[in-house]
Design brief:
Shape: rod-shaped
Helix content: 40-55%
Low-confidence stretches: none
Number of strands: 2
Number of helices: 3
Distance between the termini: 54 Å
Largest sheet: 2 strands, antiparallel
Structural class: mainly alpha
Order of helices and strands: HHHEE
Mean pLDDT: 85
Strand order of the largest sheet: 1-2
Strand content: under 5%
Length: about 130
């Protein structure tokens, strides 16, 4: 008896959504790590859908594959866009501060120009998970 291949359809859709669910869980527990698993799981889902289409070619399978491929492409772009810029050494004493821009806790912009003047400045960086 020949298999209908539906398990590959459901596996493909399941893996396609599993990365998003994992990322939502990661955000809900406040774990700020790179979600490398998102595009990987969705790509595996696309492979399962390709296997399904080889066994049973139909419109729903093609639409599911297109949806999962679009999702995988978006997730790969999202992951690549999250890459940090290359590390540059910290400035030494009496060396000018590198150009930057950020937002203060109250929402106002803050740049290296705000450090220029007669006042003493202290920058405190909080790196953590919250």
């Amino acid at each position: 008896m020949k298999s209908s291949g539906r398990q590959f359809l459901w596996l493909g859709l399941g893996f396609g959504v599993l990365g998003l669910i994992g990322y939502l869980v990661q955000l809900s527990v406040h774990r700020l790590v790179t979600p490398w698993y998102m595009p990987l799981l969705t790509t595996v889902g696309a492979v399962f859908l390709i296997v399904f289409l080889r066994q049973r070619f139909n419109l729903w399978g093609v639409l599911a594959l297109l949806l999962v491929l679009l999702l995988a492409g978006f997730e790969w772009l999202f992951l690549l866009a999250m890459q940090l810029p290359p590390y540059a050494k910290p400035p030494a004493a009496n060396e000018s501060f590198p150009a930057f821009s950020t937002t203060q806790a109250n929402g106002t912009p803050f740049t290296q120009r705000d450090l220029i003047g007669d006042q003493d400045n202290v920058l405190v960086f909080f790196r953590g998970r919250w």
